[in-house]
């Protein structure tokens, strides 16, 4: 879940999973790494996916941190709050590892009676995706979150709930904007089933248009006054 150069902030700020042994950051935040290319950016991979160097910085707050430089693993415990780009995760424990290519994998756990929560903002559509589960797993190679055990994922538009999916396991693909749900004994829906409530597309489009108008932004495909919608 964390990209290279991520930070853990508790009693002290410590870089997470650096290429070498961790050392305290002077400013409290490790400098972002720049890749070769224009403006310090690196061209996307052949499949269009971001390379590890292009992924957003990750900041993690916790009470404790155990880091293993040999195994490239980190374990955060105690009121864990992870922020990565426009995504925020809350849990009681967060276990992370990194492979040889720099891809990140993580498992978030909640104490008995609590839930792991994940919130992903999508400002281009005025959307917020919120998910809860007893456990959450992240696969950096696929940009997927799995919420497991009493899982619920809700889509909000302009702060209002629209779509809801319940199941034993719900997978959300942030890059593709897709969902998968599986029933089971720990489903949040009755009889261990998957339950989904989806608003009609016309209603969600109208909600997005209304939110856009309230914020004074031009409708999709239209340029702001005085600007051309067609690029030369």
TrEMBL record:
The entry's keywords: Periplasm, Signal, Transport
GO molecular function: glycolipid transfer activity; lipopolysaccharide binding
Nucleus recorded as keyword: no
Gene Ontology biological process: Gram-negative-bacterium-type cell outer membrane assembly; lipopolysaccharide transport
Region (Disordered): 1-55, 212-232
Predominant location category: periplasm
Domain of life: Bacteria
Annotated function: Involved in the assembly of lipopolysaccharide (LPS). Required for the translocation of LPS from the inner membrane to the outer membrane.
Family: Belongs to the LptA family.
Subunit (UniProt): Component of the lipopolysaccharide transport and assembly complex.
NCBIfam families documented for this protein: outer_YhbN_LptA
Name of the protein in its database record: Lipopolysaccharide export system protein LptA
Native species: Bordetella genomosp. 11
Gene name of this polypeptide: lptA
């Amino acid at each position: 879940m964390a990209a290279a150069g991520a930070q853990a902030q508790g009693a002290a700020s410590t870089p997470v999973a650096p290429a070498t042994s961790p050392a305290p950051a002077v400013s409290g935040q490790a400098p972002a790494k720049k890749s070769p290319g224009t403006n310090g950016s690196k061209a996307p991979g052949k499949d269009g996916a971001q390379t590890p160097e292009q992924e957003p910085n990750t900041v993690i707050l916790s009470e404790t941190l155990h880091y293993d430089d040999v195994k490239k693993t980190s374990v955060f415990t105690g009121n864990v709050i992870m922020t990565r780009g426009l995504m925020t995760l809350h849990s009681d424990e967060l276990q992370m590892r990194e492979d040889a290519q720099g891809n990140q994998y993580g498992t978030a756990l909640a104490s008995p009676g609590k839930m792991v929560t994940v919130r992903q903002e999508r400002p281009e559509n005025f959307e917020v995706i919120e998910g809860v589960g007893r456990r959450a797993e992240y696969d950096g190679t696929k940009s997927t979150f799995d919420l497991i055990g009493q899982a619920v994922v809700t889509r909000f538009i302009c702060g209002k709930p629209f779509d809801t999916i319940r199941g034993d396991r719900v997978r959300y693909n942030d890059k593709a904007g897709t969902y998968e749900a599986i029933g089971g004994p720990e489903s949040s829906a009755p009889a261990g089933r998957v339950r989904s409530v989806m608003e009609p597309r016309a209603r969600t489009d109208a909600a997005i248009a209304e939110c856009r108008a309230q914020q004074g932004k031009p409708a999709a495909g239209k340029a702001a006054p005085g600007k051309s919608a067609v690029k030369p």
